[in-house]
Amino acid sequence: xxxxxxxxxxxxxxxxxxxxxxxxxxxxxxxxxxxxxxxxxxxxxxxxxxxxxxxxxxxxxxxxxxxxxxxxxxxxxxxxxxxxxxxxxxxxxxxxxxxxxxxxxxxxxxxxxxxxxxxxxxxxxxxxxxxxxxxxxxxxxxxxxxxxxxxxxxxxxxxxxxxxxxxxxxxxxxxxxxxxxxxxxxxxxxxxxxxxxxxxxxxxxxxxxxxxxxxxxxxxxxxxxxxxxxxxxxxxxxxxxxxxxxxxxxxxxxxxxxxxxxxxxxxxxxxxxxxxxxxxxxxxxxxxxxxxxxxxxxxxxxxxxxxxxxxxxxxxxxxxxxxxxxxxxxxxx
Length: 333
Hints:
Elements: H1 6-10, E1 31-35, E2 38-43, E3 49-57, E4 61-64, H2 71-76, E5 84-87, E6 93-94, E7 98-101, E8 104-107, E9 118-119, E10 129-134, E11 137-144, E12 158-166, E13 171-179, E14 185-187, E15 190-196, E16 202-205, E17 209-213, E18 219-223, H3 226-233, E19 235-236, E20 243-247, E21 252-257, E22 262-268, E23 274-278, E24 285-291, H4 297-303, E25 314-316, E26 321-332
């Protein structure tokens, strides 16, 4: 738990109160998926992001399941203003943008101050290509080529795909990645969704423990924080000011908007066994993120602060691939 954090400063622009502009849907760079009254808008050019997921209600207008992108965010190609974006090749931050892997110190491009901690990988900052599409699905493709030795950037080549499907059950994403290197590569992945947060919004999830954080929002120790029990019973989002990772997630979370009679179930598959809850006070949205690794997992392993079961992440051999599934399933209370 934290009263203020560098992460909050870095995403403040995403909290803009500018209302969603339906005219943004006319952007021919967005891919519209439709099934019955359900709609999903995909922005391949904005980090392979999901721009919106909603029901088109002829009486009440659009009912959004994820926080929709604004026209401002779409114009700026700002993934932090999207409904959700992919996290690859690691989730959240790496302390000081540095880690040691197989005896080699890896330095990642980073800024200064709070931004010296490498954030969310890089796939969210680059355009994805459209590999195939139809009325209810789209497959996006992304390739990262490692820089020449001594150059800046993630020093491992890989490719990734997102297969996004909208059907009668909801919106689903199949994430896949493959190591293109001739050497092993550490890898973590997930998605970073934002949700509407009207008063009374609550979330329920079963987790084992919460990572307490330091002043720079980096995990330092596992604890049985009160939020762990509150999540199991159904946590009212406004009651907790969190920016924390949870281990032992059962890969399901239930979000409810009681005043609207709506609920949204988030389901995921292994290895998305970790869960991030970001519910800073005063924002009109919150984040509940399915991820495969704890923030700074590579350094936590080296520091011996936790066993592998509590930090996640994986190592892909040359040519090895990994995949996971996640879905948002709308319903009524």
